[in-house]
Amino acid sequence: MFENLTDRLSHSLKSITGQARLTEDNIKDTLREVRMALLEADVALPVVKDFVEAVKVRAVGQEVSKSLSPGQMFVKIVNDELEALMGKANESLNLATQPPAVVLMAGLQGAGKTTSVAKLARFLKEKEKKKVMVVSADVYRPAAIKQLETLATEVEAIFYPSTIEQKPIDIVNGAIAEAKVQFADVLIVDTAGRLAIDEEMMAEIKQLHAAITPAETLFVVDAMTGQDAANTAKAFNDALPLTGVVLTKADADTRGGAALSVRHITGKPIKFMGMGEKTDALDPFHPDRIASRILGMGDMLSLIEEAEQKLDRKKAEKLAKKIKKGKKFDLNDLRDQLQQMQNMGGIGDMLDKLPGMGNMAQMAQSQIDNKMFTRMEALINSMTPAERRNPDLLNGSRKRRITLGSGTEIQDLNRLLKQHKQMAKMMKKMKSKGGMANMMRGLQGMMPPGGGGFPGQ
Q: Quick one: which residues bind GTP (predicted)?
């Protein structure tokens, strides 16, 4: 979402990083470029003005003149102000109330409310160990009720049935009574999409809010609407006492204006970001980590959290023991490694979160064919167990059979075998003395001249 903004800001800040002294004159050009970068990212104009002014005041102030490296201090100020713009830290849901804690979801049509209800239910179940019930009060779109029922089954949340003949207030009151009987900790209410200018629909949600007094009222907004998302959130906030915002479709090719404008315009924090279609694609919004990524400084904390959640520790330990005993790294092991990397979002996504990688993530994305990993997995799956354990068995006729079975070419298979050999060599070096240093040298050898890319690309 922040790719273009990151590019522009890293380029703007490069010129000032080496400055020995910061004056109003030498930061003027950089600030102009920062302003342009933010406007291009579709950040609301009042937000840009306040942000640039805050950076300018601090940059020519005492804290910079006393600093050993004023240029780097300037980058830190930009980072701090980005954090302040989006809220200092992640604000979690406040569910400290007598169960069931009601979470009301509001927003425009097509913003992704129903999917976000399911994602939030899964998040609360898995991360916070809550018993969750979901209900649809969208009586204007019959498919919404059915959609929520299907998603509730998928995330294993309790579904409270409703029909289009009922009134939204009756549906939610019935759900609250049932949630008490079922000892549910949280009840998430999906409401109909409405426009802020539709007075009748806004009156309906106001009445619903007054009748059920929810612990949290979340506004679901599509990141692709840019700065307009913040204005819509403000219109809703004027009608409803919102407690936070859920930003959906943040994985899309949007310009990031919504994330940077919402907090400043509404005064309400972004609590979650939807990062994909699947029900596990909901991340708590951490302003400090996002600011760090926008400035190309990576996001190690998110990478570590993701690794803890998505990597199969048993498989990793099994492989480590196998290598320690001096056993061969075979094609089964390579397939496991490929699957683990895909679970982490692929190479580009991992590089993007590493500090100091700069444009390496984009270079990797452009030079690596993402379908390559799918082809490699298909090739390994087309082999017999004996061939996976011992690739030396592969002669001409076996290779033809494997490529026909996987719909690939002979050169794809030869490339896979070459990469497997290089990885097996690296694993051997890991076992020997100075293993890590040897492995890094091996990795360097695999990279083509010029840095980016992978063998055979």
A: 107-114, 190-194, 248-251
